[in-house]
Write a structure and sequence with these properties.
It is found in: Membrane. With about 300 residues, the chain is mainly alpha-helical. It is built from 13 helices and no strands.
């Protein structure tokens, strides 16, 4: 049990709903639009997606530790560390941490192979693309999460929106549908917003360590404006999903879940301490998860009626 608790903390298991929600949306899309739902394929997709997400968390910690980014965040006076702390605090050795990390990758790969056998090669392609994005987000030679040109935000939109929603839909149907792409955008943008906002917690330490996020490149004022823009895009794409028939009209009930996040922006100044962004992070997570769950319930009801 102690090892299980350590694994949950090391992998940051508590954030895995941001991956499971888009998977559920894609599978429900297949149920609503095509009348098909294979529970076993769905469970394998869930396990594979969860393993891929936890691998992403841990490989991020591994490379950020090696690059000195996490150490800089720990030593900075105003920074709020967002890593697991298992390497910076020497709870686990690098070797043990890496072994668990690559074990999760192997589990995700096995699930991808199984899904490719039963649903088609694109199931593996979607998973492989997600794995490559997760690895090269922080790993050399690409390290596009360090470049500050918007690559990381595009990567998150793909990894936590487009790929899991469309991949889960494909697993159930063995074909693609434009409605799945539309359905992926609001939840993908809300998750992108979570990852974007978390950079505010340690952006000065990132700058010191050479990690050029958009917050580092643009500064707080411009980055906050872009953060608000991402929220607006989430609202607009949700409405577009309803208009295009990817969601029923009562899918608009997901919009009020974003109001608390909008309210937090009004309490922030152009420049803030890192700790002042903790409410923004909390509201981002709650809005994304609640909006996603409401979308799931709406699709489920539509499928039943």
């Amino acid at each position: 049990m102690d090892m299980l608790k350590q694994f949950r903390k090391a992998s940051r298991f508590g954030v895995v709903p941001v991956m499971l929600i888009p998977v559920a949306l894609g599978a429900l899309g297949a149920f609503v639009w095509n009348g098909v739902f294979n529970v076993w394929l769905f469970l394998v997709t869930l396990v594979g997606a969860a393993a891929a997400h936890l691998f992403s968390n841990m490989i991020n910690d591994l490379w950020d530790y090696k690059s000195g980014t996490d150490i800089a965040a720990k030593e900075a006076v105003d920074a709020v560390s967002t890593n697991s702390g298992f390497l910076t605090n020497k709870v686990w050795s690098i070797r043990k941490f890496a072994a668990v990390t690559w074990g999760l990758f192997a589990l995700a790969a096995i699930c991808g192979i199984l899904l490719a056998i039963f649903s088609g090669i694109w199931a593996f392609v979607f998973g492989a693309l997600g794995g490559l994005i997760a690895y090269f987000y922080v790993a050399p030679p690409l390290k596009f999460g360090y470049r500050g040109k918007g690559y990381s935000e595009i990567a998150i939109l793909l990894s936590f929106g487009v790929l899991p929603v469309m991949g889960a839909y494909y697993v159930q149907t063995s074909h693609l549908d434009m409605r799945a792409l539309l359905l992926s955008l609001p939840i993908g943008l809300l998750t992108t917003l979570i990852l974007f906002n978390h950079h505010f917690l340690h952006w000065q330490a990132d700058r010191q360590a050479g990690k050029r996020t958009l917050v580092v490149v643009w500064g707080e004022k411009r980055a906050l404006a872009f953060s608000r823009f991402l929220l607006l895009l989430s609202v607009l794409t949700l409405i577009l999903s309803v208009v295009a028939g990817a969601l029923p009209v009562y899918g608009l009930l997901a919009l009020p879940a974003m109001i608390p996040l909008y309210q937090v922006y009004g309490k922030l100044k152009p420049q803030n301490t890192s700790h002042a962004y903790l409410p923004l992070m909390g509201a981002s997570v709650k809005s994304a998860q609640l909006s996603g769950l409401i979308m799931i319930v709406c699709l489920f009801i539509q499928g039943l009626i």
